[in-house]
Design goal:
Distance between the termini: 57 Å
Helix content: over 70%
Strand content: under 5%
Number of helices: 2
Order of helices and strands: HH
């Protein structure tokens, strides 16, 4: 019984750590996306910022920005 509880706690901790690492990576992706938006004109920057925000909300990693 104690082993099962310990195993469940360890599995839970591993999932929490994995979730935190993925979220940190997504934050880096969002920052990189926004940095690449800053070079565009103001109108393009707004569209690009919306695009980055949508991707961040959906949890999609940015591979390349739309032209």
């Amino acid at each position: 019984m104690d082993r099962e509880i310990a195993a469940a706690i360890i599995i839970l901790i591993v999932f929490v750590i994995a979730f935190v690492v993925v979220r940190l990576f997504m934050a880096d992706e969002f920052t990189a996306c926004m940095d690449s938006c800053r070079a565009s004109s103001q109108l393009e920057h707004l569209k690009c910022a919306e695009y980055c925000s949508e991707l961040a909300q959906k949890g999609i990693m940015v591979v390349e920005l739309p032209k």
